[in-house]
Amino acid sequence: MTHLDELKDAMHSPPDFLPAPLDLQQVMTSGGRLRRRRRFAVAGASALTVAALLIGGSQLAGVGGRADSNPVAAPSAPLPSAGDSSKPEPVPSAGNSSAPGIIGTIVETGRQAEDRRWILYMETSDPHHLDRSLTLILGRTTTGFIDDFDPEITASDPGDGRLAPGFHAVRGGLQLAGRSTPTFGYYVGDAARITARDSATGRTVEAERAPWSSYGGETEAQIFWFDFTEGQTPARFTDISAYDAAGTRLHVHG
Amino acid sequence: MARGDDDFIAFAQASSSRLQRAAYLLTGDAHQAEEAAQATLVRVYAAWGRVRRKDPYVYARTVLTNLVTDQWRRPMREYATETMPERQTPQDVGDVVSKRRWLIGVLQGLSPRERAVVVLRHFFDASEAEVARELDLPAGTVKSLNSRALAKLRITALRTETEAGVGL
User: What gap in Å lies between CA A194 and CA A39, rounded to an integer?
Assistant: First the structure.
């Protein structure tokens, strides 16, 4: 038999697990954005309440209806689809300024959860030093407006070298808050294919890829993800690899 | 740097390892644990002005638990096993690491609800009422889940603590 204290000791020092250093700068960047979005939502709700009182509820019948039934405004910068990755659309970002925040191409995965589309994009806390500040975000959006981006997973390498040739910020698929997320990351280099092995089936699977660039193409990478299905347990992948057009294996480590 | 950031950094540095361990106990996956702890701290930072003067650690615990256990609030079948692996051989039992590994293995074989109750009650030392509130479960359910889980973990302290008036 076991004493309760032994269980407590085991839980406080589980073998085979070592906590990782977390990127607090990224935590604060994402948390600050979440805070601003919540304030915006509260302010919007308050304004709507005032409007309802001033105008009368009947005249606001369209509010809260389906977005596509009576669109108020189109997204300021339509997102490129996953299948249209050869033509990434530039979006308002830090790419043309020194402001921290979202930078470069926004990528749609073509999947969605609870009516919000999964997107992948980059952020930086220091646009002048992307090599140590670039962070990949898996988020969701409904409208495509930047202030509607809802970050779900932030992924970055520790320290410098985030633009060195090779794989970076690779994160495995999860069941996060009931939603399925893909295995994703970014690759710096001229990969023509990115593949991995499904550990359950042993099959080699090819990733979806989309070019990412900022500063007018000065900085380039490929954002990739493996296809995933909402509601299904994400596949586990191993042996992630990149190949050039001739089929030669490229750098693996970032 | 915003007002209160120094306090948040101190809090995050002090609690990140513990949050990651709790997330690891809840998920059984080191990578998911890291992601969940980071996502928890993002939400704590977003609410820092509101929670810093209360108990940010309790808030973080609640956020983490909700993040990880949200999926079993939805209709789903739990695949808990009633048959736990046999204990280590006698010569291994004396090995603390071996025994801890066995306990963590059994913990991860519990149903998500049982595991969440055990982690909240015995890792975070939350009261039965707090666990019931955070998991949105009746207190009686929390009590029975805890008892069943501890039985699977072959914990002997159940009788002792109950007799001492400490609810489990």
Answer: 40
